[in-house]
UniProtKB/TrEMBL annotation:
This is Acetylornithine aminotransferase. N(2)-acetyl-L-ornithine binds at residues 139, 278. Binds 1 pyridoxal phosphate per subunit. It comes from Alteromonas confluentis. Homodimer.
Length: 401
Protein backbone atom coordinates (compact mmCIF):
# COMPACT_ATOMS: atom_id res chain seq x y z
CA UNK A 1 0.00 0.00 0.00
CA UNK A 2 1.34 3.39 -0.99
CA UNK A 3 1.19 5.93 1.86
CA UNK A 4 2.42 9.52 1.84
CA UNK A 5 2.22 12.64 3.96
CA UNK A 6 -1.16 13.32 2.31
CA UNK A 7 -2.47 10.08 3.85
CA UNK A 8 -1.94 11.68 7.27
CA UNK A 9 -4.60 14.27 6.60
CA UNK A 10 -6.99 11.59 5.38
CA UNK A 11 -6.74 9.10 8.24
CA UNK A 12 -5.10 10.70 11.30
CA UNK A 13 -6.61 12.82 14.05
CA UNK A 14 -5.26 16.32 13.31
CA UNK A 15 -3.67 16.95 16.73
CA UNK A 16 -0.20 16.83 15.15
CA UNK A 17 1.18 18.77 12.21
CA UNK A 18 4.10 16.62 11.00
CA UNK A 19 6.75 17.75 8.50
CA UNK A 20 6.07 17.35 4.80
CA UNK A 21 8.45 14.44 4.33
CA UNK A 22 8.05 10.95 5.76
CA UNK A 23 11.20 9.39 7.28
CA UNK A 24 11.65 5.70 6.56
CA UNK A 25 15.08 4.69 7.89
CA UNK A 26 17.71 5.86 10.35
CA UNK A 27 21.27 4.96 11.24
CA UNK A 28 23.28 6.75 13.91
CA UNK A 29 22.46 10.45 13.54
CA UNK A 30 21.31 10.19 9.92
CA UNK A 31 17.77 9.64 8.67
CA UNK A 32 16.39 9.05 5.16
CA UNK A 33 12.96 9.97 3.85
CA UNK A 34 10.69 8.32 1.27
CA UNK A 35 12.48 10.22 -1.53
CA UNK A 36 15.91 9.05 -0.38
CA UNK A 37 16.93 12.46 0.99
CA UNK A 38 19.43 12.23 3.85
CA UNK A 39 18.96 14.28 7.03
CA UNK A 40 21.23 14.95 9.99
CA UNK A 41 19.32 14.44 13.23
CA UNK A 42 19.84 17.11 15.91
CA UNK A 43 16.36 16.42 17.35
CA UNK A 44 16.77 12.84 18.52
CA UNK A 45 13.02 12.26 18.45
CA UNK A 46 12.60 14.99 21.11
CA UNK A 47 15.49 13.91 23.34
CA UNK A 48 14.62 10.23 22.98
CA UNK A 49 17.11 8.58 20.62
CA UNK A 50 19.91 8.80 23.15
CA UNK A 51 22.17 6.52 21.08
CA UNK A 52 20.93 7.58 17.66
CA UNK A 53 18.99 5.31 15.33
CA UNK A 54 19.36 1.53 15.28
CA UNK A 55 22.31 1.35 17.67
CA UNK A 56 23.62 -2.24 17.43
CA UNK A 57 23.40 -2.82 21.21
CA UNK A 58 19.72 -1.81 21.22
CA UNK A 59 18.87 -3.73 18.06
CA UNK A 60 20.62 -6.73 19.61
CA UNK A 61 18.70 -6.46 22.90
CA UNK A 62 15.38 -6.02 21.12
CA UNK A 63 15.98 -8.91 18.75
CA UNK A 64 17.12 -11.24 21.50
CA UNK A 65 14.18 -10.41 23.75
CA UNK A 66 11.82 -10.48 20.77
CA UNK A 67 12.67 -14.12 20.25
CA UNK A 68 12.21 -14.93 23.92
CA UNK A 69 9.24 -13.27 25.61
CA UNK A 70 7.19 -10.18 24.70
CA UNK A 71 4.52 -9.66 27.29
CA UNK A 72 2.82 -11.21 30.28
CA UNK A 73 1.37 -8.21 32.19
CA UNK A 74 2.15 -7.46 35.81
CA UNK A 75 0.44 -10.63 36.98
CA UNK A 76 4.01 -11.87 36.52
CA UNK A 77 7.32 -10.10 36.86
CA UNK A 78 10.09 -10.58 34.32
CA UNK A 79 13.87 -10.69 34.15
CA UNK A 80 14.53 -7.58 32.02
CA UNK A 81 12.35 -5.43 34.33
CA UNK A 82 14.10 -6.74 37.43
CA UNK A 83 17.55 -6.22 35.95
CA UNK A 84 16.74 -2.69 34.80
CA UNK A 85 15.22 -1.78 38.18
CA UNK A 86 18.28 -3.14 39.95
CA UNK A 87 20.60 -1.08 37.74
CA UNK A 88 18.55 2.09 38.21
CA UNK A 89 18.62 1.71 41.98
CA UNK A 90 22.38 1.10 41.96
CA UNK A 91 22.95 4.18 39.76
CA UNK A 92 20.71 6.65 41.62
CA UNK A 93 19.39 7.67 45.06
CA UNK A 94 16.37 5.45 44.52
CA UNK A 95 15.58 2.16 46.22
CA UNK A 96 12.31 1.32 44.42
CA UNK A 97 11.15 1.54 40.81
CA UNK A 98 7.73 1.66 39.13
CA UNK A 99 7.64 1.17 35.36
CA UNK A 100 5.27 2.96 33.00
CA UNK A 101 5.21 3.49 29.24
CA UNK A 102 5.69 7.24 28.93
CA UNK A 103 6.73 10.37 30.74
CA UNK A 104 3.19 11.47 31.49
CA UNK A 105 2.33 8.13 33.05
CA UNK A 106 5.48 8.20 35.17
CA UNK A 107 4.48 11.65 36.43
CA UNK A 108 0.90 10.53 36.97
CA UNK A 109 2.26 7.75 39.20
CA UNK A 110 4.50 10.20 41.06
CA UNK A 111 1.64 12.62 41.73
CA UNK A 112 -0.73 9.87 42.87
CA UNK A 113 1.95 8.44 45.13
CA UNK A 114 2.64 11.87 46.63
CA UNK A 115 -1.07 12.41 47.33
CA UNK A 116 -1.44 8.95 48.88
CA UNK A 117 1.70 9.35 50.97
CA UNK A 118 0.51 12.68 52.37
CA UNK A 119 -2.99 11.36 53.03
CA UNK A 120 -1.73 8.36 54.95
CA UNK A 121 0.98 10.19 56.86
CA UNK A 122 -0.51 13.62 57.47
CA UNK A 123 -4.24 13.47 56.73
CA UNK A 124 -6.54 14.71 54.00
CA UNK A 125 -5.78 18.44 54.32
CA UNK A 126 -2.26 17.98 52.99
CA UNK A 127 -3.05 17.72 49.30
CA UNK A 128 -1.69 20.76 47.46
CA UNK A 129 0.73 20.32 44.60
CA UNK A 130 3.02 23.19 43.62
CA UNK A 131 4.57 23.35 40.15
CA UNK A 132 6.13 26.04 37.99
CA UNK A 133 5.01 28.30 35.19
CA UNK A 134 6.22 27.14 31.77
CA UNK A 135 6.85 23.67 33.22
CA UNK A 136 5.81 20.62 31.22
CA UNK A 137 4.87 17.26 32.71
CA UNK A 138 2.86 15.45 30.03
CA UNK A 139 -0.61 15.38 28.51
CA UNK A 140 -2.78 13.29 30.82
CA UNK A 141 -5.32 15.55 32.48
CA UNK A 142 -3.59 15.50 35.87
CA UNK A 143 -0.08 16.08 34.46
CA UNK A 144 -1.17 18.75 32.00
CA UNK A 145 -2.90 20.56 34.86
CA UNK A 146 0.28 20.40 36.93
CA UNK A 147 2.21 21.68 33.90
CA UNK A 148 2.62 25.42 33.84
CA UNK A 149 0.94 26.38 30.58
CA UNK A 150 -2.78 26.88 30.95
CA UNK A 151 -3.11 26.86 27.16
CA UNK A 152 -2.47 23.10 27.23
CA UNK A 153 -4.95 22.31 30.02
CA UNK A 154 -7.78 24.76 29.24
CA UNK A 155 -10.75 23.66 27.20
CA UNK A 156 -11.29 20.18 28.61
CA UNK A 157 -13.74 20.90 31.40
CA UNK A 158 -13.11 20.93 35.15
CA UNK A 159 -9.48 20.35 36.10
CA UNK A 160 -8.09 18.29 38.98
CA UNK A 161 -7.90 20.64 41.97
CA UNK A 162 -5.32 21.76 44.54
CA UNK A 163 -2.65 22.51 41.95
CA UNK A 164 -0.74 25.81 42.36
CA UNK A 165 1.89 27.49 40.21
CA UNK A 166 4.61 30.08 40.63
CA UNK A 167 7.52 31.37 38.59
CA UNK A 168 10.58 29.15 38.09
CA UNK A 169 13.71 30.51 39.78
CA UNK A 170 11.61 32.78 42.02
CA UNK A 171 12.32 31.44 45.51
CA UNK A 172 10.48 34.28 47.21
CA UNK A 173 7.25 33.55 45.35
CA UNK A 174 7.68 29.85 46.07
CA UNK A 175 8.19 30.47 49.77
CA UNK A 176 4.90 32.40 49.86
CA UNK A 177 3.06 29.51 48.21
CA UNK A 178 4.37 26.52 50.13
CA UNK A 179 2.67 25.63 53.40
CA UNK A 180 1.67 22.76 55.64
CA UNK A 181 -0.99 22.00 53.02
CA UNK A 182 1.62 21.29 50.36
CA UNK A 183 2.00 17.57 49.71
CA UNK A 184 4.43 17.76 46.80
CA UNK A 185 6.43 20.05 44.54
CA UNK A 186 6.99 18.94 40.95
CA UNK A 187 9.74 20.56 38.94
CA UNK A 188 12.04 19.94 36.00
CA UNK A 189 15.65 20.41 37.07
CA UNK A 190 16.09 21.98 33.60
CA UNK A 191 12.90 23.18 31.93
CA UNK A 192 12.73 21.66 28.45
CA UNK A 193 9.50 22.43 26.60
CA UNK A 194 9.25 25.76 28.43
CA UNK A 195 12.31 27.12 26.60
CA UNK A 196 15.46 25.36 27.94
CA UNK A 197 15.64 27.23 31.23
CA UNK A 198 18.32 26.19 33.73
CA UNK A 199 17.53 26.50 37.42
CA UNK A 200 19.66 28.71 39.66
CA UNK A 201 21.62 26.49 42.04
CA UNK A 202 20.34 28.48 45.04
CA UNK A 203 16.76 28.16 43.85
CA UNK A 204 16.92 24.37 43.75
CA UNK A 205 18.62 24.24 47.13
CA UNK A 206 16.00 26.59 48.55
CA UNK A 207 13.13 24.53 47.16
CA UNK A 208 14.62 21.40 48.74
CA UNK A 209 14.98 23.11 52.14
CA UNK A 210 11.43 24.47 52.07
CA UNK A 211 10.06 21.06 51.07
CA UNK A 212 11.85 19.55 54.07
CA UNK A 213 10.55 22.27 56.36
CA UNK A 214 6.94 21.67 55.27
CA UNK A 215 7.10 17.87 54.89
CA UNK A 216 6.43 18.11 51.17
CA UNK A 217 7.86 15.61 48.72
CA UNK A 218 10.14 16.98 46.02
CA UNK A 219 9.49 15.38 42.64
CA UNK A 220 12.06 15.93 39.90
CA UNK A 221 10.64 15.42 36.44
CA UNK A 222 13.73 14.22 34.57
CA UNK A 223 11.76 12.87 31.63
CA UNK A 224 13.73 15.15 29.31
CA UNK A 225 16.86 15.94 31.35
CA UNK A 226 17.65 12.36 32.39
CA UNK A 227 19.74 9.47 31.09
CA UNK A 228 22.98 11.31 30.39
CA UNK A 229 21.48 14.27 28.56
CA UNK A 230 23.16 16.89 30.76
CA UNK A 231 26.47 15.03 31.00
CA UNK A 232 25.46 13.40 34.26
CA UNK A 233 23.24 10.32 34.41
CA UNK A 234 20.53 12.52 35.96
CA UNK A 235 20.54 16.30 36.19
CA UNK A 236 20.00 16.22 39.99
CA UNK A 237 23.51 14.82 40.30
CA UNK A 238 24.91 18.07 38.94
CA UNK A 239 22.79 20.20 41.28
CA UNK A 240 23.73 18.48 44.54
CA UNK A 241 20.06 18.23 45.44
CA UNK A 242 18.37 14.86 45.79
CA UNK A 243 14.64 14.56 45.10
CA UNK A 244 12.25 12.22 46.91
CA UNK A 245 10.76 10.99 43.66
CA UNK A 246 12.30 11.13 40.18
CA UNK A 247 10.60 10.40 36.89
CA UNK A 248 12.43 9.35 33.75
CA UNK A 249 11.29 8.40 30.24
CA UNK A 250 12.26 9.78 26.78
CA UNK A 251 15.96 8.74 26.54
CA UNK A 252 15.41 5.83 28.93
CA UNK A 253 14.31 3.50 26.15
CA UNK A 254 16.45 5.05 23.43
CA UNK A 255 13.38 5.06 21.18
CA UNK A 256 11.37 2.21 22.67
CA UNK A 257 8.46 3.48 24.81
CA UNK A 258 9.16 3.21 28.53
CA UNK A 259 9.01 5.43 31.59
CA UNK A 260 9.86 4.95 35.22
CA UNK A 261 9.25 6.49 38.62
CA UNK A 262 12.07 6.13 41.11
CA UNK A 263 11.78 6.70 44.85
CA UNK A 264 12.83 5.56 48.30
CA UNK A 265 11.62 2.39 50.00
CA UNK A 266 9.82 4.41 52.68
CA UNK A 267 7.79 6.46 50.21
CA UNK A 268 7.22 3.55 47.81
CA UNK A 269 5.59 1.57 50.61
CA UNK A 270 2.50 3.78 50.28
CA UNK A 271 1.73 2.50 46.79
CA UNK A 272 0.45 -0.82 48.12
CA UNK A 273 -0.69 -3.72 45.95
CA UNK A 274 -3.71 -2.70 43.92
CA UNK A 275 -3.37 1.09 44.38
CA UNK A 276 -1.91 1.81 40.93
CA UNK A 277 -0.83 -0.03 37.83
CA UNK A 278 -0.45 -0.40 34.08
CA UNK A 279 -0.94 -3.32 31.72
CA UNK A 280 2.22 -2.68 29.73
CA UNK A 281 4.40 -1.13 32.45
CA UNK A 282 7.66 -3.06 32.76
CA UNK A 283 7.13 -4.81 29.44
CA UNK A 284 10.07 -7.17 28.76
CA UNK A 285 10.87 -5.73 25.31
CA UNK A 286 10.97 -2.15 26.64
CA UNK A 287 13.02 -3.10 29.69
CA UNK A 288 15.53 -5.16 27.68
CA UNK A 289 16.16 -2.22 25.34
CA UNK A 290 16.35 0.28 28.22
CA UNK A 291 18.81 -1.94 30.07
CA UNK A 292 21.04 -2.05 27.00
CA UNK A 293 20.79 1.74 26.59
CA UNK A 294 21.63 2.35 30.25
CA UNK A 295 24.66 0.04 30.02
CA UNK A 296 26.04 2.15 27.16
CA UNK A 297 25.08 5.59 28.47
CA UNK A 298 26.13 5.18 32.09
CA UNK A 299 29.85 5.02 31.31
CA UNK A 300 32.52 7.72 31.79
CA UNK A 301 33.26 7.72 28.03
CA UNK A 302 29.71 8.54 26.96
CA UNK A 303 29.01 10.99 29.80
CA UNK A 304 32.24 12.95 29.34
CA UNK A 305 31.66 12.83 25.58
CA UNK A 306 28.43 14.76 26.15
CA UNK A 307 30.41 17.68 27.56
CA UNK A 308 32.83 17.65 24.59
CA UNK A 309 29.91 17.66 22.16
CA UNK A 310 28.20 20.46 24.07
CA UNK A 311 31.35 22.55 23.69
CA UNK A 312 31.44 21.94 19.94
CA UNK A 313 27.74 22.81 19.59
CA UNK A 314 28.28 26.04 21.51
CA UNK A 315 31.38 26.95 19.50
CA UNK A 316 29.69 26.40 16.13
CA UNK A 317 26.46 28.16 17.18
CA UNK A 318 28.62 31.06 18.35
CA UNK A 319 30.29 31.25 14.93
CA UNK A 320 26.90 31.28 13.20
CA UNK A 321 25.72 34.03 15.52
CA UNK A 322 28.87 36.10 14.87
CA UNK A 323 27.91 36.12 11.19
CA UNK A 324 24.14 36.49 11.37
CA UNK A 325 23.33 37.93 14.82
CA UNK A 326 20.12 36.01 15.44
CA UNK A 327 20.52 34.63 18.99
CA UNK A 328 20.52 36.41 22.32
CA UNK A 329 22.10 33.40 24.03
CA UNK A 330 22.73 29.67 23.82
CA UNK A 331 21.52 28.00 27.00
CA UNK A 332 20.88 24.62 28.58
CA UNK A 333 23.29 21.89 29.55
CA UNK A 334 25.00 18.98 27.85
CA UNK A 335 23.08 17.96 24.76
CA UNK A 336 19.88 19.71 25.73
CA UNK A 337 20.62 23.12 24.28
CA UNK A 338 18.49 26.06 23.26
CA UNK A 339 19.45 28.91 20.95
CA UNK A 340 17.22 31.78 22.09
CA UNK A 341 16.32 34.22 19.31
CA UNK A 342 17.02 37.90 19.85
CA UNK A 343 14.43 40.69 19.58
CA UNK A 344 14.73 40.94 15.79
CA UNK A 345 13.58 37.35 15.39
CA UNK A 346 11.21 37.11 18.37
CA UNK A 347 8.49 34.51 17.91
CA UNK A 348 10.07 32.99 14.79
CA UNK A 349 11.65 29.75 16.07
CA UNK A 350 9.35 27.76 13.82
CA UNK A 351 10.70 29.59 10.72
CA UNK A 352 14.20 28.40 11.63
CA UNK A 353 12.97 24.85 12.13
CA UNK A 354 11.24 24.80 8.74
CA UNK A 355 14.33 26.32 7.08
CA UNK A 356 16.50 23.65 8.76
CA UNK A 357 14.26 20.84 7.50
CA UNK A 358 14.57 22.31 4.00
CA UNK A 359 18.36 22.10 4.40
CA UNK A 360 17.99 18.46 5.51
CA UNK A 361 18.58 19.05 9.20
CA UNK A 362 16.21 17.92 11.94
CA UNK A 363 16.03 20.17 14.99
CA UNK A 364 13.33 21.22 17.48
CA UNK A 365 11.80 24.30 18.96
CA UNK A 366 11.02 24.98 22.63
CA UNK A 367 8.29 27.58 22.53
CA UNK A 368 8.17 30.38 19.98
CA UNK A 369 11.60 31.87 20.70
CA UNK A 370 14.00 28.98 21.11
CA UNK A 371 15.54 26.55 18.63
CA UNK A 372 16.27 23.38 20.56
CA UNK A 373 18.92 20.71 19.97
CA UNK A 374 18.69 17.27 21.63
CA UNK A 375 20.78 14.94 19.46
CA UNK A 376 22.16 11.48 20.15
CA UNK A 377 24.72 11.52 22.96
CA UNK A 378 27.15 9.72 20.65
CA UNK A 379 26.68 11.87 17.54
CA UNK A 380 30.06 12.12 15.79
CA UNK A 381 32.10 15.30 15.40
CA UNK A 382 31.71 15.00 11.63
CA UNK A 383 27.91 14.78 11.95
CA UNK A 384 27.85 17.81 14.25
CA UNK A 385 29.94 19.86 11.78
CA UNK A 386 27.89 18.69 8.80
CA UNK A 387 24.63 19.44 10.65
CA UNK A 388 25.85 22.89 11.70
CA UNK A 389 26.83 23.73 8.13
CA UNK A 390 23.24 22.90 7.16
CA UNK A 391 21.93 24.96 10.08
CA UNK A 392 24.04 27.91 8.97
CA UNK A 393 22.47 27.74 5.50
CA UNK A 394 19.03 27.59 7.16
CA UNK A 395 19.83 30.66 9.29
CA UNK A 396 21.09 32.51 6.20
CA UNK A 397 17.85 31.67 4.39
CA UNK A 398 15.72 33.08 7.21
CA UNK A 399 17.87 36.18 7.58
CA UNK A 400 17.97 36.89 3.85
CA UNK A 401 14.33 36.04 3.15
C1 LIG B 1 8.16 14.97 27.21
C2 LIG B 1 7.99 15.28 28.64
C3 LIG B 1 6.97 14.69 29.40
C4 LIG B 1 5.90 13.82 28.79
O1 LIG B 1 6.43 12.62 28.31
P1 LIG B 1 5.50 11.70 27.35
O2 LIG B 1 6.34 10.49 27.13
O3 LIG B 1 5.25 12.50 26.12
O4 LIG B 1 4.26 11.42 28.08
C5 LIG B 1 6.93 14.96 30.75
N1 LIG B 1 7.83 15.76 31.33
C6 LIG B 1 8.83 16.34 30.64
C7 LIG B 1 9.82 17.20 31.35
C8 LIG B 1 8.93 16.13 29.27
O5 LIG B 1 9.90 16.73 28.58
Amino acid sequence: MNVTRATFDEVMVPNYNPANMVPVRGEGSRVWDQEGNEYIDFAGGIAVNVLGHCHPALVGALTEQGNKLWHLSNVFTNEPALRLAKKLTVATFAERVYFANSGAESNEAALKLARRYALEKFGEDKNEIIAFNQGFHGRTFFTVTVGGQAAYSDGFGPKPGAVLHCDYNDLEAFEKLISEKTCAVMMEPLQGEGGIISPDADFVKGVRELCDKHNALLIFDEVQSGVGRTGQLYAYMGLNVTPDILTTAKSLGGGFPIGAMLTTAEIAAHLKAGTHGSTYGGNPLACAVAEAALDVVNTPEVLSGVVERENLFRELLGEINDKYNVFSEVRGKGLLLGAALNQDYAGRARDFLVAATNEKLMCLVAGANVVRFAPSLIITEEEIRDGMARFERAVANVVNA
